[in-house]
Amino acid sequence: MPIEEKSVKTIARKAAAVALSISMTGCSFFGQRLQTITVSSDPIGADVYINGERVGRSPVSHEVPRGPDLLVEVRAEGYEVGYRKANRSLSTLGIADLIGGWLLLLPFLGLLAPAAWEHQPNAFGIALDPAPARESAPQPPPADPSPASEKPGGAG
Question: What is the third-level CATH fold of 33-91+120-128?
Answer without folding.
Answer: Immunoglobulin-like (2.60.40)
